[in-house]
Amino acid sequence: MIDIHIILLYCVYKEVYNMRTNIIINDELMSKAKKISNLKTKREVVERALQEFVTNHSRLNLLELKGKIKFADGYDHKAMREGVSN
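Request: output the structure for the sequence above.
Response:
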């Protein structure tokens, strides 16, 4: 069975769009994905999976920002959570 992650990474890395390809996909997994997503075709499921994969892996890890953000004097995150403004 072909590892779909390798194919997805290749497509993202090469920025290939509208590429026709043949891949072997687990039928049970595809059925579950179609049911959960309410998508009708395998193509739609793969397209959605690619979009979500790219979005999720493109986000900057919040832990990498530790110590790199300077907040304004008087910034009170607890007060903001409670809806209290200065």
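The chain has four helices and no strands.
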